[in-house]
Design a protein that fits this description.
This protein is of the alpha/beta class. It contains 15 helices and eleven strands. It is globular. Bound molecules: coproporphyrinogen III.
């Protein structure tokens, strides 16, 4: 394996000194890039990009080639490969987001749910090794998975971004059934992330995109403990280096203190909290990653620079911040606005580091 040339991202996640604040963007390979749309057309569909390691490698590298100041790459895939491998039948309808052929609602189906053979996900591990070779040590490669709660919302509801009434009804009426789904999914995600680490992932991130839909008590019962369980079972070192773990709950800033206790090295922030306040609340327990509102990238260079400066200033001097968006970049983002954001982070952040 090529020697890593830029480890600022890994160092910042471990709260070690860096000469500037590293930056990457959630969903940095995606539809806002014309070269991505071109690759997707050639591949035939989004899922074919994910399932073919050479396409997955091609699109992972696109943002790195366009934006040489990015400090990390992320596996091109989707969190929903896991429920797909668990037999639910993932498909995408143009413009409608992900859906499943089958849902998990009946007790008999739920009892049958089991950890799938990781061979079902071999295409993901092949993509990780292929990307790691192609990135060639320029920056680290992030592996990822969905949190058990977030994956369960898709498995029970059959689609995303709903009002979550079916799964919440289960949580309140039959918590035993939901805990069974979450337990099997946590074991699956743990094996899945460990296989990504074995294939070459240098950091891992757990996306809890729908944790913020839960009540206070329900988050602490149905989401956070399962992320903790996964993190406790992860391989800590690969190639003689720590593999940092990031946990991100969208809408989760209410629970920062609790998140800082689950064994993650860094916590992802959306844009709803002031990052300086977040830093005070977690102290020196974890690093923070985020928290630019992705909608800012639809505006002007001046507005983008002002917001980048404000977040960097609010975090203040010292280590432990990875600059990122508070959620995925939108497909309507002009690529030059992402470039303006990335340059602003590099230019404005050196003053906060020794
Ligand atoms: O960051 C990256 O560049 C890596 C790729 C990545 C994708 N999905 C590719 C993708 C990552 C890290 C994900 C994670 C993911 N997928 C999450 C967690 C993060 C989040 O956004 O909250 C979730 C909830 C999903 C499920 C999912 N996949 C949804 C809801 C959608 C449709 C909504 C949308 O933005 O289109 C997808 C599709 C998807 N995943 C696309 C990409 C590039 C767009 C597919 C296309 O080309 O049409």
């Amino acid at each position: 394996m090529a020697q890593l040339q830029n480890d600022t991202f890994l160092r910042a996640l471990m709260r070690e000194p860096t000469p500037y604040t590293p930056v990457w963007m959630m969903r940095q390979a995606g539809r806002y890039l014309p070269e991505y749309r071109e690759s997707r057309k050639t591949a035939g569909s989004f899922l074919q990009l994910c399932k073919n390691p050479s396409f997955a490698t091609e699109v992972t590298l696109q943002p790195l080639d366009r934006y040489p100041l990015l400090d990390a790459s992320i596996l091109f895939s989707d969190i929903l490969t896991v429920p797909d491998a668990m037999g639910l039948g993932l498909y995408f309808e143009e413009g409608e987001g992900p859906k499943f052929d089958r849902t998990l609602r009946e007790e008999a189906d739920i009892k049958k749910l089991h950890v799938p053979d990781m061979a079902e996900l071999q295409y993901v591990f092949d993509a990780v090794s292929s990307i790691r070779t192609a990135v060639n040590g320029r920056v680290p490669l992030i592996g990822f998975a969905g949190s058990p709660w977030t994956l369960a919302t898709y498995m029970v509801e059959g689609k995303g971004g709903t009002d979550f009434l079916t799964i919440k009804k289960m949580a309140y009426a039959r918590p035993d059934l939901l805990h069974h789904i979450l337990e099997v999914t946590a074991q699956t995600v743990m094996q899945y992330l460990n296989a990504q680490i074995a294939a070459g992932a240098q950091a891992v991130m757990i996306f809890d995109s729908w944790g913020g839909a839960l009540s206070h008590k329900a988050y602490l019962e149905f989401s956070l403990p399962y992320m903790q369980k996964i993190i406790n079972g992860l391989t800590r070192e690969a190639d003689g280096r720590i593999v940092p773990r990031v946990a991100f709950t969208k809408g989760g800033a209410l629970w920062l203190e609790a998140q800082a206790e689950i064994g993650a090295d860094a916590i992802g922030l959306d844009w709803t909290i002031d990052i300086g306040q977040a830093r005070k609340r977690v102290g020196d327990k974890v690093a923070l990653q985020g928290n630019l509102d992705p909608a800012i990238l639809l505006s002007t260079t001046e507005a983008i620079e002002k917001e980048v400066a404000s977040i960097l200033g609010s975090y203040g001097h010292g280590n432990g911040h990875v600059f990122n968006l508070g959620h995925g970049i939108t497909q309507w983002t002009p690529p030059e606005n992402a470039a303006a954001m990335i340059s602003a982070v590099r230019n404005f952040s050196t003053q906060y580091h020794e």
